[in-house]
Amino acid sequence: MVCIKESLEYFHGSVNLYFLNGVYIISKFINLKTMKKLLIIGLMLFTYVYSSGQEQQKTPLPPIPAAPDKMIPGMTEIWNPEVKIIQSGATNRDAPSDAIILFDGTDINNEWMGMDGKPSIWTVKDGALISTKGSGYIKTKRVFNDFQLHIEWKTPSEVSGNSQGRGNSGVYLQELYEVQVLDSYDNRTYRNGQAGSIYKQYPPLVNACKKPGEWQTYDIIYTAPRFSNDSLTYFTPPRVTVLQNGVLVQNNVSLRGPTQYIGIPEYTIKKHGPLGILLQDHGNPVGYRNIWIREL
Predict the structure, then answer these.
(1) Fewer beta carbons under 10 A from the terminal one: N or C of the chain?
(2) Which residues does 163 contact at the CB level (< 8 Å), separation at least 6?
(3) Which of 110-114, 227-231, 238-242 comes out lowest in average pLDDT?
(4) 3-state secondary structure of 250
């Protein structure tokens, strides 16, 4: 039998209590008012302890994992929902069945427009979309978030100019983030501005350029940014992977902000939603063809 003595200083004077087999016993006479207070406190304590016990009983215990030597293969197999079936292209250049065709060599104005929303004045020749000096940037009529983009491009076979003045154009992801297009075959320029670079941010891992006049490919995987509450910082930044002619040149890089020719990308971040794909007119007759995109 255990007896625990406690002292209550809450009341006037000292009231000695003994706890015997779950019952408090008062050691001296007290007035009726004090007795009522003790009874109320006792009831509150009893209710709290009882309800806490009930709550603990209701909380389900986590399942006990099976010991590794007791597991079977089916415990880690996920069957549903079944993975969506698509038809892949005959080659890596060909669009899969779930792709949106942005340019198939015919009418540019099906999917593209000028920056002012009017029909584009870029020309179509031999199945290629050609940027001509002064024709301006063009962008897709559709807007996108995360996507896989395939685009083929060609710089002029007749070499003219050097550095940034030779076969210059660009593919802007969500109209803000540029993957540089440039004749970088035997043409020295700043490393974060050559073909395959994320312009002024990341140089390509290698120079995978073909000779001038030869068709080249970009396969781009893009994850759009998510924004913080202040609208001026990324919660998660945009991320880009680029394969040029089948060679990895950008490996899931985190972008610092929108592309800037002069300035710091981080200072120009502004919250945005889905935006289009933009092709740059830089004064050089760069051609594009076989453009398709898959929304992710």
Answers:
(1) N
(2) 187, 188, 189
(3) 227-231
(4) strand
Tokens, residue 228: 């913080």
**DSSP code of residue 176:** T
What letter represents residue 189's amino acid? T
Task: Report the run of H or E that residue 263 belongs to, with start and end.
Answer: none
**Kind and range of the H or E run holding 138:** strand 138-140
Residues 6 or more apart in contact with residue 275 via CB below 8 angstroms: 143, 144, 174, 175, 176
Count CA atoms closer than 13 A to 48's CA, side-chain side. Answer: 6
Instruction: Delineate the domains of the chain, giving CATH numbers in brackets.
Output: 3-58 (no CATH), 100-295 (2.60.120.560)
Percent of the chain with pLDDT over 90: 70
Digit-coded pLDDT (tens) for 53-112? 555 556 677 777 778 888 999 999 999 999 999 999 999 999 999 999 999 999 999 999
C-alpha dihedral over 272, 112, 169, 198, to 10 degrees? Answer: 30
Between CA 191 and CA 203 the distance in angstroms is 5
- What pLDDT, on the 0 to 100 scale, is given for residue 195? 98
H or E segment and range at residue 256: none
pLDDT of 201 over the 80 cut: yes
DSSP state of 95: P
Q: Give the largest Cα separation in the chain, rounded.
A: 112
Q: What is the CA radius of gyration of the chain?
A: 35
